[in-house]
Amino acid sequence: MSDAPDTEPGPAEQPTRRTFLALGAVAASTVVTVRPALAQAAGSVLNCEIPIPSPQAAGSFIAPNGTVVPAGTEGAFPPPPRPITGEEAKLLLRGGRTPAGVDSQAAQAYANYIRRLQAGMSGFTCYASLQMPR
Fold first, then answer.
1. Is the pTM of this model over 0.90?
2. Which of 47, 49, 87, 93 pairs as cysteine with 83 (C-beta 3.0–4.6 A)?
3. What confidence tens digit (pLDDT) does each residue in 73-105 have?
4. If 0-12 CB within 10 Å is exposed, 13-18 middle and 19+ buried, where does residue 109 land?
């Protein structure tokens, strides 16, 4: 059995109309403030860049499985002429459109390279941000 009294809250304990209006104003200003920040964050994720290969391996080629191999390795692909943007990486990883001037086999090798990125490697932060749910 409960020790609490079975009484209704008194007028001093019930929220007033003023309290509800104040809470509504706070909630509205929070939405107005957070929404542009989220849009800006989403835009910056699509504009980030992933160098392929990392600057430390400049001049190396990319094998079909995504590993970095010495330049001229048979069956490997030369790096793209510029870093892959977040938007291009997102499309590559989903099997979509390839960046201009990149054939489909090279694009698949680049996608495999991106999937192999680990913390501390150039482009990892960009790749990780692409994995975050929106």
1. no
2. 49
3. 999 999 998 898 888 888 888 887 777 788 889
4. buried
